[in-house]
Amino acid sequence: MTGLFPGFLTLSAAMFALGALGVMLRRNPLVVFMSIELMLNAGNLALITYARYTHTMAGQVFALIVIAVAASEVVVGLALITGVYRSGRRLDIDDLSEMRE
Amino acid sequence: MNPTFTLVLGAIALGLPTAGFLVNALTAGKLPRRVVSFLGPGVVLGAFVASLLLLVELLSQSPAHRGITVVFWHWLNLSVGSAGGAVAQSGFNANFSVRIDPLAVLMMLVITGIGGLIHVYSVGYMAEDAGYNRFFAYMNLFITSMLLLVMSENLIFLIIGWSMVAFASYALIAFWYQRPAAVTAGRKAFITQVIGDVGLVLGAFLIFLNLRGSNGQLLHTVDLRTIFVNVGPGAHFHNGLGLMGGGLVTVIGILLFVGAAAKSAQWPLHTWLPDAMEGPTPVSALIHAATMVTAGVYLIARFHPIYQQAPIAAGVVAAVGIGTALMAAIIGCTQYDIKRVIAYSTMSQIGLMIFAVGVGAYSAGMFQFFTHACFKALLFLAAGNVIHALHDEQDIRSMGGLSTRMRLTFGAFLVGSLALAGIPLFAGWFSKEELLSSGLALGPAVPWLWLLGVSVNVLTSFYIFRVVWMAFRGQPASSRAAAANEARPVMLVPVLVLAFLAAVVGFLNIDFFGFHPVTVFSAFLQPVLGTPAAHASDGIQALALLVGTLLSVLGLTLAWAVYGRRVISPDLISRNLPWIYQLSLQKFYWDEIYDAVLVRPSLAFAGVVRQVFEPRIFDRLVDGVKVGVGTLADDLRTMQTGFFRDYALIFFVCAVVGLVVLGLRLA
Fold this sequence. Notes:
Number of strands of chain B: 2
Shape of chain A: elongated
Number of helices of chain A: 3
Radius of gyration of chain B: 30 Å
Strand content of chain B: under 5%
Oligomer: heterodimer
Helix content of chain A: over 70%
Number of domains of chain B: 2
Low-confidence stretches of chain B: 81-88, 234-240
CATH class of chain A: Mainly Alpha
Number of helices of chain B: 27
């Protein structure tokens, strides 16, 4: 089991990098959103790996909290995206830049 | 003394005027005038009754036990090694507490008694004024502050009362705030008071920081009695303030006198008093005759243990007092404004009191304060009747012939003048002669100071009878004077009561049972003020009395000859010694001197700052900050693109950089 830890961590890092790239490169808010979820779960994976590695429970507890936060975030985020869509606008985050100045 | 009874009475005396002020002020003029007319004077007279009961309580004790400290509230109690409540020997204690002793009760009686009469008078005098409620609010506030000042048993509340008096005085002088002259006068008075406050506070700090107890330890106390015990002759001289040689205690004495001089309008802080006559006449009577201006005399009498250790400071006090007395008396001889003549007379009489407390004749000074409060308030109120009847005419050249039209007011004014001049059997005679003969016994440069003092006598009776003849006798000099009518009863009764007092209070001092040489007054004040160091022998006293009285009568006769009989031309002096006349008429040019030495340089300096520093340095500094922030903001604004990906990129880059830095540091 212990030998697998570097693999888990590598997987986690790869997932996080993919998510980060997705956030920065994609223009569809839904895909950006999925990328964020990917990053969160990469974090979860790393947390649980370290929890097993150190034989403590803290990482697992954190992972549970992250899942709860992610769920809440999805609720808010999807509501926002739906709201933007309903107002008849294109779902493109580069178009949603009125907050500038 | 019964502590509970005293506490209740003290609380009533201090609380009633406070309540009157609060009610009047917080209702903001909504209270009907009829209510204010009873509330305003009522609270002060109530306080007077409480003071009278305190006097009875004091007199029921043996002299040694006349004095009790009443604690209303343990305000600050930073005792070392004691859990509050109990008063520790070490540590800092400042309670809201009052000291009921003969000196305090005497002051309270005058403040609330004379003050109460003046309040009653104001009901008539201010009847048509739009600011009726405001006026009584300020008056009650003044009474409260003054009571706090004289009752306080520690430095802190004494200073609080001292400054509140200054504020109340400012508010009352500038009461008619639509008149620029009144506002300027109020401001001038307040600024002068603040100069005095600085002196008093610095003196208090020096006492607090340097006073040592009998075991040589620094006391850090604000309690007046502790201070006096440790500074006085009973203390080990090398342990008390005297440790610093005579120097420190002299500095303290002079600093305290700066405060006293500002309150009591003594040179060089005297110029505010004549200008303060811009306020309503009852204010002049209350503040500038009976109470506030005597606070300086009270202060020095109260702090006499310090002055007994500081002969130089006491000498300064006496010299300034007698100098001011003479100067003000000379100025009084040429003024035409009836209130200003009385104002200079006040300054002069208070100079005499300051002289007395300076040479150590404390009870003589306080006795003069007591009689002076009666006859000077009387003179002001009677003058107020005249001014009221003549529709705000104050120039005695436009008066004349009023004695037939205002008989009672004339009679009262005459009694006041006789008392002021020191004509035998009137109040002023008793006090002034005692004062001058004490000065003769105690003063260091005895005959000189005494000569100056008695020459004040001539001038005093001259200038006040000049007013009597010019304003009340002869023919009316204006249509207003010819049409003047006697004042309303509400204004007349207080004047007549005061006239009665001015005629008889002098007899209070006569010991009908003959315990020579201590007079009743000094016996009453003895527990606080001690006995004078020396008495003039009977022969000298009798001689002084005779000379003083003769000189007073001489002044009266002179005034009669010049202004009554007109056998001597009034411009005899102005023609032959024009410089003396001009000096007197122009009030010794003090206002001009201060203008040239203080006001103009300040204005010039302010002008330079305005012209040079303001545009070239301060403005540029401020503008520079503005421009700098604006430029920075313009540059930073370009970062805010509104594109989500840009923010995310910045976020990730920063996170990576942060992690790398963290990793490097850990490694």
